[in-house]
């Protein structure tokens, strides 16, 4: 088999290049740190390290960038689980159940599961990239504006399943997010909407809002209760999940990895969308969907394998077609070009040796991520042993500096603070924050692509039903939206009769750690 | 492990609503109504603001106002449903725990308000005295606010944390942090 | 009079800086601390890469290093406003792009072209009419004839309404007397992707943004809107050869705020000239398929003023000007 031979050859070449391997380690480690810090995303990490690769040979430079990419996507999960700070937008999905697990005292196992799932999702997608690249190459081109619109609608329908206790409140949060997402330059005409004359608001300050709603709101909440102020937060118990637990979530991991890879291949859709979609599908197929949102291990596994599954998919589209699937690969495209490599079908023919060595290196990067991740988790877990009175101000300081770093803008910090205050009150009265984040991701995508599709079809609405992918996605979206509503009504009538069985309120089994 | 789950054992205002859909406490009922009214107000303001949006030059475009209006109308509808649902639910009397904890709840609200205020002050201060100075003061005062009242340890931790953050961002990530207009 | 003004400003700046700095560093010693280079676009994009290549190559020609800072948002308006409002001491300089001459007319910017002193233009790219390789049109004449016969049927993708490549297509429509259906995308890359997938008929982005696909045989450039043929594509004609008098360029260069003292401007101009001549810088641009187009301050100003008038005229005609 051609690919396998080439891959083995690639591993051999790689072994003779210790410098490239060393840089992969550096890249993965830097990526994890950048991903874990609020505000700094994998995109920014890749952009920061890009100038350093100018002087390197192509393999070393590209492997370091891949390391940052992979590590950056995974790193967001660590702080999302431990502190409810989603380091990256994708980790906002992980934070939903991950932080609930931490509150239950199961931070260790959540982190371990996240690490394994990231590794498996990423490795799966790289394998798809290696062996199926030529077959799948043209898939991305099928996606026009109408398909992207349908994907965004499907993404938005997920709001119904992450709404939390009250579907109405979840939908209000979601539509509020959609309305906020229309702030800024109108995607078609370039007209500034609801900006009040601030150029800073020309694009929605999405990451500051996300950091505020999740991390700052949680920090403000921590200030209110005198009882927890002085105590240590929690301990990390075991990290590696027992095989029996892991076997239970393996199906979820496989499904999410596949979903992530496919979504990664679609231009304009990245790890954030993949994480939410994977969450939704995991819940749809779960036997215990009522546990989602209250600390379900499979949810963490789904989000992380989905997000990292994106990496291989995005690289596939970028390498085979020269089309960047998301912001990170757009920067990587620049890096490749700078190295004198022109991504596209010719790359595989003219530089086959380099490409397969790079593939081998990507697999190595994922193994490195697993090793570095698992071995650093204990250290990271020590964060939780810091007294809350120290941890909370440090979190806030990180939120401030991380938000500033996105655009070097004080304005963004003010937005973050405002979102934090709003998020605090939302949380107090059961308005969930994740629908807002989801709406901010999907809203602009839905509107821009709907209007673009309309222009492409010269004003006809035919595109909604005569394009197969669009129609199928819209139908699935309809089901997703209605299913939880129906189930909610059914459960409500049942709950009205008897006592509610609520997993979150069950007494905490892991008592007496102190 | 009793401290691990702040929301589970804290007597916070929303805990009664966890008991299912049987009823709402007076506070929750009021909060729901106020929030719904606020959101409706925001939605109406948004619809009014779309009045000035010009049409795009593209013939087949629906214009910049269409989507915000759809979202705003949906919000108004959803909030109306929330208001009706809230009014239909019976009011449960506040639990005794809440009445005795009234003073504590007031204190916690003050705490949060002070914390938010301090963050705002830190923000404003940063533009004048720079990132480092503002953060050190901010960190030590929030620690004090959260019950750590050590006069020596607080500033020390604050300086160390600030230094670590500063070096990470400024040198490691090449993000130039504000130096403050007084020192520029 | 202008130079008199800048001299007096220089004197004032010197007095102030002497007053502030106990070390007594005068403007003559410029630069005595690192320089910030504001890039109004995201890290990793074309403008950012040019800026970083410049900052890297400038090390040899300036005693202090240049640090690149990305200030994104508002289609460049945020970063350009920041450059305009910077203290005119030469320690915060910026990358100026063609948007300087476009945004002010749209009523979305607080600056105008006169708020900047140009130091040097580094790079310029023309617009290129590109179609899918499967498309029936082999020449630009065939393409325009088809457009004329089917008004509004040819869908041209651009990098956003009011962005440079949209205006290039509008200008072509105006000069050639045809009617296109303009489809805005979120940047040049998504527009090219749509062209590859045959969802649109053409794009008017720069050759650098399609070169990969052209060499892979997926896309075909019909013409460039330039004064002379591109070195990378010697076979592609210019519109001028086809008797359409149209040249639309995007450009990138170094600019400083208007009131920057003359000696600082001169230091930067010399450094920029030497940096632009640097082989490493030329190589970096070539690797990115970008065209090296150095122009000194005064020449750069002429380009800016010409474009400013051109876009003002075009946008007024299109009803986009405010």
Structural notes for this entry:
Chain A is mainly α. Chain A has 21 helices and two strands. Chain A has helices at residues 2-15, 18-36, 42-53, 58-83, 89-103, 107-136, 139-142, 145-157, 167-181, 206-224, 226-229, 243-265, 271-285, 297-321, 327-338, 345-350, 352-381, 388-407, 410-428, 434-456, 468-497; strands at 184-185, 192-193. Chain A has a two-stranded antiparallel sheet. In chain A, a hairpin with a 6-residue loop joins strand 1 (184-185) and strand 2. The longest helix of chain A has 30 residues, at 107-136. Chain C has 322 residues and is of the alpha/beta class. Chain C folds into two domains: 2-124 and 251-318, D-Maltodextrin-Binding Protein, domain 2 (3-Layer(aba) Sandwich), CATH 3.40.190; 126-242, D-Maltodextrin-Binding Protein, domain 2 (3-Layer(aba) Sandwich). In chain C, strands 1, 2, 3, 4, 5, 6, 7, 8, 9 and 10 form a ten-stranded mixed beta sheet that branches. In chain C, helix 5 (164-176) links the parallel strand 5 (155-158) and strand 6. In chain C, helix 2 (46-57) packs antiparallel against helix 9.
């Amino acid at each position: 088999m051609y690919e396998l031979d080439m891959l083995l050859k690639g591993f051999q070449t790689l072994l003779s290049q210790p410098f490239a391997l060393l840089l992969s380690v550096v890249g993965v480690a830097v990526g994890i740190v950048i991903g874990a810090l609020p505000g700094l995303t994998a995109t920014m990490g890749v952009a920061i390290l890009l100038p350093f690769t100018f002087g390197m040979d192509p393999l070393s430079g590209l492997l370091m960038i891949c390391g940052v990419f992979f590590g950056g996507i995974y790193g967001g999960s660590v702080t999302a689980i431990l502190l409810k700070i989603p380091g990256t937008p994708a980790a906002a999905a992980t934070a939903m159940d991950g932080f609930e697990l931490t509150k239950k005292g199961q931070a260790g196992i959540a982190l371990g599961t996240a690490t394994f799932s990231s590794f498996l999702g990423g490795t799966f997608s790289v394998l798809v990239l290696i062996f199926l690249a030529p077959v799948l190459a043209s898939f991305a081109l099928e996606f026009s504006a109408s398909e992207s619109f349908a994907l965004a609608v499907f993404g938005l329908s997920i709001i119904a399943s992450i709404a939390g206790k009250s579907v109405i409140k979840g939908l209000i949060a979601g539509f509020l997010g959609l309305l906020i997402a229309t702030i800024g330059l109108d995607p078609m005409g370039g007209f500034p909407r609801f900006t009040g004359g601030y150029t800073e608001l020309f694009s929605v300050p999405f990451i500051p809002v996300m950091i505020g709603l999740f991390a700052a709101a949680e920090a403000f909440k921590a200030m209110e209760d005198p009882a927890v102020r002085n105590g240590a937060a929690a301990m990390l118990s075991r990290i590696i999940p027992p095989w029996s637990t892991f076997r239970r979530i393996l199906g979820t991991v496989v499904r999410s990895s596949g979903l992530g890879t496919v979504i990664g291949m679609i231009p304009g859709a990245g790890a954030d969308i993949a994480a939410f979609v994977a969450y939704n599908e995991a819940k749809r197929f779960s036997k215990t969907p009522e546990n989602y949102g209250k600390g379900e291990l499979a949810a963490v596994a789904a989000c992380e394998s989905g997000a990292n599954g994106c990496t291989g998919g995005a690289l596939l589209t970028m390498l085979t077609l020269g089309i960047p699937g998301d912001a990170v690969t757009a920067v990587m495209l620049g890096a490749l070009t700078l190295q004198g490599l022109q991504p596209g079908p010719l790359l595989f023919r003219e530089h086959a040796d380099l490409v397969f060595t790079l593939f081998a290196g990507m697999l190595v990067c994922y193994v490195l991520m697993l090793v570095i991740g698992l071995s650093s988790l204990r250290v990271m877990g020590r964060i939780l042993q810091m007294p809350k009175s120290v941890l909370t101000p440090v979190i806030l300081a990180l939120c401030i500096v991380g938000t500033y770093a996105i655009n070097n803008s004080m304005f963004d910090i003010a937005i973050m603070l405002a979102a934090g205050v709003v998020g605090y009150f939302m949380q107090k009265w059961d308005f969930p924050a994740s629908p807002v984040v989801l709406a901010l991701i999907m809203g602009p995508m839905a509107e821009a692509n709907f209007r673009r599709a309309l222009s492409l079809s010269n004003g006809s609405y035919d595109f909604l039903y005569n394009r197969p992918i669009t129609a199928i996605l819209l139908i699935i979206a309809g089901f997703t939206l209605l299913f939880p509503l129906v189930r909610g009504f059914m459960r409500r009538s049942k709950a009205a009769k008897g006592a509610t069985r609520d997993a979150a309120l069950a007494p905490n089994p892991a008592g007496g750690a102190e | 492990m009793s401290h691990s789950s702040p929301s589970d054992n804290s007597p916070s205002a929303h805990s009664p609503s966890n008991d299912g859909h049987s009823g709402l406490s007076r506070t929750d009922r009021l909060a729901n109504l106020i929030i719904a009214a606020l959101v409706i107000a925001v939605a109406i303001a948004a619809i009014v603001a779309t009045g000035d949006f010009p049409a795009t030059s593209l013939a087949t475009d629906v214009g910049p106002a269409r989507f915000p209006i759809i979202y705003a109308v949906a919000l108004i509808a959803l909030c109306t449903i929330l208001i009706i649902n809230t009014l239909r639910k019976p009011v449960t009397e506040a639990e005794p725990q809440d009445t005795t904890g009234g003073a504590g709840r007031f204190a916690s609200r003050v705490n949060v308000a002070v914390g938010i205020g301090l963050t705002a002050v830190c923000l404003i201060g940063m533009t004048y005295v720079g990132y480092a100075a503002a953060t050190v003061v901010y960190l030590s005062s929030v620690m004090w606010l959260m019950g750590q009242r050590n006069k020596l340890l607080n500033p020390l931790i604050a300086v160390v944390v600030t230094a670590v953050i500063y070096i990470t961002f400024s040198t490691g990530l090449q993000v130039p942090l504000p130096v403050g207009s007084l020192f520029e | 009079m202008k130079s008199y003004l800048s001299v007096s400003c220089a004197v004032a700046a010197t007095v102030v800086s002497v007053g502030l700095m106990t070390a007594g560093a005068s403007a003559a010693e410029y630069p005595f601390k690192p320089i910030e280079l504001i890039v109004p676009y995201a890290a990793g994009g074309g403008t950012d890469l040019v800026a970083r290549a410049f900052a890297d190559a400038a090390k040899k020609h300036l005693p202090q290093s240049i640090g690149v800072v990305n200030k994104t948002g508002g289609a460049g308006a945020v970063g350009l406003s920041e450059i305009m409002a910077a203290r005119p001491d030469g320690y915060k300089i910026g990358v100026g792009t063609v948007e300087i001459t476009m945004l002010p007319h749209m009523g979305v910017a607080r600056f105008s072209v006169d708020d900047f002193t140009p130091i040097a233009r580094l790079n310029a790219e023309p617009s290129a009419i590109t179609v899918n390789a499967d498309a029936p049109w082999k020449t630009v004449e065939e393409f325009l004839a088809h457009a004329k016969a089917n008004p509004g049927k040819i869908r041209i993708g651009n990098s956003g309404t009011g962005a440079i490549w949209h205006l290039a297509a509008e200008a072509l429509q105006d000069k050639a007397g045809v009617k296109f259906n303009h489809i805005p995308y979120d940047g040049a890359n998504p527009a090219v992707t749509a062209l590859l997938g045959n969802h649109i008929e053409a794009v008017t982005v720069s050759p650098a943004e399609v070169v990969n696909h052209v060499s892979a045989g997926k896309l075909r450039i019909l013409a460039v809107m330039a004064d002379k043929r591109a070195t990378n594509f010697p076979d592609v004609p210019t519109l001028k050869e086809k008797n359409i008098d149209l040249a639309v360029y995007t450009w990138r260069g170094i600019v400083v705020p208007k009131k920057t003292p003359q000696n600082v401007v001169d230091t930067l101009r010399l450094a920029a000239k030497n940096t632009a001549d640097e082989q490493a810088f030329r190589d970096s641009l070539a690797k990115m398929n970008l065209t090296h187009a150095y122009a000194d301050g005064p020449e750069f100003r002429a380009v800016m003023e010409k474009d400013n008038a051109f876009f003002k005229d075009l946008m007024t005609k299109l009803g986009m000007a405010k």
